[in-house]
Design brief:
- This protein has seven helices and nine strands; from the N terminus they run αβββαβααββααβαββ.
- With 212 residues, the chain is α+β, with helices and mostly antiparallel strands.
- It has two domains: 30 residues; 179 residues, no CATH class.
- Strands 7-6-5-8 form a four-stranded antiparallel β-sheet. Strands 2-3-4 form a three-stranded antiparallel β-sheet.
Length: 212
Amino acid sequence: MYKARKFFVVVTLLLSVELFLLGSLLRDRRSQPYHVDRAALSGWTVVLGAPEDPWVVALEPPASLTASLFQQLATKVDRPLVAPRHAALPLVMRPEYDDALQGVYGAMDIQRLARQEMTGGSTVEAVCVGRRADPQNATSGELYFLAVSSPAFDALRLELRPDFPEHAGIGVYDPGAITAVLPIASTDTDFGRWWPIRLQRLTDCQAQVTVD
């Protein structure tokens, strides 16, 4: 009986060590730097959202950027991932538009203002590749994204503040409610549930981005 218990304890310890090492290996792989082509950080297009998109107006990057980041991520994350149906960086989310902006702006008005702010030479600066886990189900719900810095993004969000909020809708528009985040992949197809996202660098950023 004693030998059997001792054997069980040894096996349990070995399995615990293996699981710990495997978890450490996966974390190390996820924290390895990602690589981005410098040309892919400029010339993004301002687009209107489709009815199923969680945003009204967004910035659409070159397809090569999102494809490259998804491929790099897939080699580092040991689980199935789904790419967004329409990969774009939200400028205005649909709920905030419906509640606090549509009484003043139409979607095309916002698109026009965004195009004025984000000229052809406008660039974004890569901050990090980040990860969010679903607090209700962290083992299955994950979102991976590219966080960027964009003065034009910040300027547009500030410019959209209504002069007379009482005419804009029943809600209050907060320019800082979202930050510049481009979704790369998720563990399911419901990308809209992750917003609003306000980047917290210490907890969200998972890996550096090198620009070549």
